[in-house]
Specification:
About 45% of the residues lie in helices and about 10% in strands. It has 11 helices and 7 strands. InterPro entries: P-loop_NTPase, Thymidylate_kin-like_dom, Thymidylate_kin_CS, Thymidylate_kinase.
């Protein structure tokens, strides 16, 4: 789609995702390899990102010591962005290559559609929105993998877990359905959940400016996160985000350094490839 103008590209993306939404809702149980996924979604992701995975549930082995994939999750206004920035700065100052990423990435064409939706400037059907969020993560996979191969630790502000928690908090969405589009994403070496009471989060600055920022909805989101944290195939750590900023940072840094050391000589896994394996 590189030859399309910006507006035409947005229209093309909307059209593709609309078709994929229908396919994913109606034909999501097709078996491909050892997974039950949407054939249309898999083809879209591979074509869009040019991503190919090995059959044993892991990305091809990286030469040398790779960087770690570290994710911070939590309800809105839990302090994720602040802590991501502080962690990256601390790692860099200690001589460890590190960069920050944030999802949704609103700089891409798909990200701009998501941004308009979150800012209440447009309305989209809920299944379509969920697939857009997933596509936004998938389109960044080649860059993520490249940086990890270079030994750069990626500190990510929200990942697939947020996508699943927020969509499944809506009526009529099952947790397993919401997880399917993200099966096979690079698996984080560490996911830290910033635990904060939604009522306390609502008292923090700028709460309520975007869609989903209501205390009632955020409580449901937190419950969905608690369900996701039962998955023992993911390295979850719960951080008390009600502490002062520096104490939260110390806890996060300690867990991160441990994860970085362990990840250096390990292959990068696939998210939920075992959790949802038939």
């Amino acid at each position: 789609m590189g030859w399309l103008k910006r507006d035409e590209m947005k229209q093309e993306v909307r059209h593709c995702v609309s078709l994929l939404t229908f396919c994913f809702r109606k034909r999501r149980q097709m078996v491909i390899g050892h997974r039950s996924v949407s054939r249309a979604w898999l083809q879209f992701v591979r074509g869009f990102c040019n991503v190919h995975r090995s059959t044993d549930g892991q990305w091809s082995e990286m030469a040398g010591k790779r960087g770690a994939l570290i994710v911070l999750e939590g309800v809105d206004r839990a302090g994720k962005t602040t802590q991501c920035s502080k962690l990256v700065q601390a790692l860099q100052q200690s001589g460890r290559p590190a960069e920050m990423m944030r999802f949704p990435d609103r700089t891409t064409t798909i990200g701009q559609l998501i941004g308009a939706y979150l800012e209440n400037k447009s309305d989209l059907e809920d299944h379509t929105v969920h697939l857009l969020f997933s596509a936004n993560r998938w389109e960044m996979v080649p860059l993520m993998k490249k940086k990890l191969e270079q030994g750069i630790t990626l500190v990510v502000d929200r990942y697939a877990f947020s996508g699943v928690a927020f969509t499944s908090a809506k009526p009529g969405f099952r947790l397993d359905w919401c997880m399917q589009p993200d099966v096979g994403l690079p698996k984080p070496d560490l996911v830290m959940f910033l635990q904060l009471n939604p009522a306390e989060a609502a008292l923090r600055g700028q709460f309520g400016q975007e869609r989903y920022e209501t205390s009632v909805f955020q409580r449901t989101v937190q419950q969905r996160f608690e369900q996701l944290m039962k998955d023992q195939t993911v390295n979850w750590q719960v951080i008390d985000a009600a502490q002062n900023i520096e104490n939260v940072h110390k806890d996060i840094t300690a867990h991160s350094l441990n994860a970085i050391n362990k990840a250096q000589n390990l292959p990068l896994g696939e998210l939920w490839s075992e959790t949802l394996k038939n």
